[in-house]
Amino acid sequence: MKVHISHICYCFLLLNSAFALYVPRLSTSPVLFSSVQDNIRNNNFETWIIKQKEVSFQGILNNIGGISDFLNETEVAKGAVIASPSKNDPDYFYQWTRDAALTIKSLIYYIQDAEFEGVDHIKLIVESYIENNYYLQRLDNKSGRFDDDSKSGLGEPKFHADNTAFNEHWGRPQRDGPGLRVITILSYLSLLDKFEKGVGNTFLGSKEFIYQEIVKPDLIYISKNWQEEGFDLWEEISSLHFFGSITQLRALKDGVRVAKELKDDPDFIETLQNTYDDLKAFIVEISGYAPESHPYIIETPSYLKSGKRSGLDSAVLLGSIHSHNIESNDHADVPFDVTDGRILNTLSAMVGDMKYRYPINHNKIGFERGIGAALGRYPEDVYDGHGTSEGNPWFLSTATAAEVIYKFLYKLGKNRENIVVNSENKDFFKDFIDIERIETEADAQIVIPYGSTTYVSLTRNLFHYSDSFLEIIKDHVDNSGHMSEQFNKYHGYMQGATDLTWSYSAVWNSFRWRERASRTLNKI
């Protein structure tokens, strides 16, 4: 049964929907921490976002070799992205393939938004990162070698900041790094094509060199290893994981496109396409990532089956946002984007769990529906940023929750889509509209037409829901906008690795998507 709603406003929808959402202008001049006034947390929310966005971007730059004023060039290679300047308790003074790829993607967004105007220094950083990865790929390491049949060495998760191999005990291999690197580098090459720009780095020289010497080896690694177990993005458990699989799928999709553009060997293109088809079938039908028994995505099915974990994990949300470019239709056939019911239900389930799990969220219990909570990695987490005791909320997890909804709203508005509430996404929408009919009739759905009064009210309410996650971040950064890895679940003060690069990147991304969602909603 289908119910259309056009003029009915439920009592808990935001009724005043006529106001315009604020959209700050793009700044192409990131500022140093020292030039931002003290106590930026004392500003109102909109002003804090402007200042925190600048601080977050500079926080990224401060952790990249060759550009940072704070890193010793003898310790950190040019183009190396360190996870954190922290060298003890904990020691994060390394470059991770995953963290670096996700961080550089933020810089590529920055270049895109500026349309290459006034960002030559950022372009140089991105290309230095690409060159640096050429060298890292070819380092023999504990995961393997570059020149064997499966490119096994590309599964090595981290390296010393000076581009030497890390040979101590670690959770290796990790299978997500090559795919994330492909996504980031090909995103940059696509941007160069769009704006008719060339590669400025003299070592790299051309798009063709980058593809053949850096991207293609990673694609070979994925095609040879996607079925093999590896450690998850939290570096704790070895199995097959949603985050790794879905980002590998995106990388293969992008790889097929560019391989065709550059007229690579037809047999290799066929291998990539066949691998894409096989991996997609595995994700959707075989893996256990989306079992009928659960309304949300399971990050590591083997650990659900063994009873060790619930399957809930912010890695699922990260996997969704990093496996789709919703500004184009290039990834329409990659499953589980931000509009997918199971992704939305994953977010809802994470909030539902952690508003009870973390005492700093307890003031949100029973107070108001449709309000965010501080989110950690997964319910069973015991890593406290220094050792093992109790898990805490993470800045990047909380920011990612906001980004999911901002992207959801952006995609709805961009495509002028109706909102359809049904049995697949009702767990998410139940905090925003009355779903009694769906609860009692299995095939029922509610269609909220694009542009209707209820549509406008609901999308504004969802926008403020996203904002509520950022308001939590505002409460827990320090007065200058610095961010560590975690904030304590009891007292809320930061702990773990200081100035975590991934924290800055995730928060900056959420601000960017807030602006884009706002512009889209203002056109309705």
Automatic annotation (TrEMBL):
GO terms for molecular function: glucan 1,4-alpha-glucosidase activity. Its EC number is 3.2.1.3. It holds the Pfam family Glyco_hydro_15. Residues 60-506 form the GH15-like domain. One of its GO terms (cellular component) is fungal-type vacuole. GO terms for biological process: glycogen catabolic process. It is an enzyme of class 3 (hydrolase). This is glucan 1,4-alpha-glucosidase. It comes from Suhomyces tanzawaensis NRRL Y-17324.
